[in-house]
Design brief:
By secondary structure, the protein is an alpha/beta fold. The protein is 45% helix and 15% strand. Helix 1 packs parallel to helix 2 and helix 9 runs antiparallel to helix 10. The radius of gyration is 20 Å and the shape is globular. This is Glycosyltransferase.
């Protein structure tokens, strides 16, 4: 009987996918109760050679799906749509877990009777990443104590265990599945989903003993990439926040959030300018906050950055 469905969406990362699948199939867990579902979201099918090799070895325990349209929401929905387990685990194709990863996720779930268990994603810096990026800890994330309740603000899909029955309750207007396809090019589909689960009363907790590592390539370890990510995070915060309100209440909430973003933008801009010559890392942190506030305001113009697909 399948208890756990590990869902992986991949896009043009065959070598990293190979590393991830090797670690997944080496888990200290009853492999007969485990299935792995991989969705190749690349129209050129770049993952198929790697997947065929694993398919020869693991047969029915590996399900391979192909999705021609580059849309992360549709890819996630496709994987969840065929999942047979009581629990769905989502992990990204550039991540890699230790051998006891599943054990700790499930142990935390049992200890707290949780519906969702989040765990750390630790940066693994590629060779050539500038020292100031590592020192600034810009890719580090908050790590609370195991069992700490998590709300939608800290929710991410990179390393998470979710009760499948909760996912089955969520259907977007298109009927495509729990992840909204309108976020499929921009990202933010995971934030939207966990906002909805939190609103439905799902018990969401943290497990600090089940980290995965995530490759940070050189092309992401730049000031421009980090500022753009902060800008996009601001856009997606405003978009998902307003989407949770009835249409007749969004203007009021949007006005309040917009005014707050203007104030925070002005403050962070001044602090960034003042601190950059004195303490570059602190100054850059404030520059990222400034970019995030600008992204929130930019949301009202209706144009959003696309980060998935060609």
């Amino acid at each position: 009987m399948i208890d756990i469905s590990i869902c992986i969406c991949t896009f043009r990362r065959p070598l990293l996918l190979q590393r991830l699948l090797t670690a997944v199939f080496a888990q200290n867990y009853n492999q007969e109760c485990l299935e792995v579902i991989v969705v190749d979201n690349d129209v050129h099918r770049s993952a198929i050679p790697v997947l065929n090799e694993f398919k020869k070895q693991f047969h029915d325990r590996l399900t391979v799906l192909e999705l021609g349209e580059s849309n992360i929401s549709l890819a996630r929905n496709a994987a969840i749509g065929v999942a047979r387990g009581e629990w769905v685990v989502m992990v990204d194709d550039d991540e890699c877990p230790a051998q006891d990863w599943l054990h700790y996720l499930l142990a935390t779930q049992a200890s707290f009777n949780a519906d969702v268990v989040f765990a750390p994603v630790l940066p693994e810096y590629a060779e050539g990443v500038p020292p100031w990026i590592i020192k600034g800890q810009f890719f580090d994330r908050r790590r609370p104590v195991s069992g700490t309740p998590i709300d939608d603000k800290d929710a991410r899909s990179g390393n998470v265990l979710v009760r499948k029955s909760f996912l089955d309750q969520l259907r977007t207007s298109s009927g495509a599945g729990p992840f909204d396809p309108s976020f499929g090019k921009t990202g933010g589909e995971d934030s939207m989903l966990f906002r909805q689960l939190h609103a439905r009363g799902a018990c969401m907790v943290w497990c600090d003993e089940a980290p995965v590592t995530e490759i940070v390539p050189v092309d992401r370890a730049t000031a421009s990439w980090l500022l753009q990510r902060s800008f996009r995070t601001g856009q997606l915060f405003m978009r998902t926040e307003l989407a949770m309100f009835p249409k007749n209440q969004r203007w009021h909430r949007g006005l309040w959030l917009g005014l707050r973003a203007i104030i925070q933008l002005c403050i962070s801009f001044v602090l960034a300018i003042v601190l950059l010559p004195l303490s570059p890392l602190k100054g850059f942190s404030w520059a990222r906050i400034c970019a995030s506030q600008f992204g929130k305001l930019n949301h009202f113009l209706g144009a959003h950055l696309h980060v998935y697909g060609d």
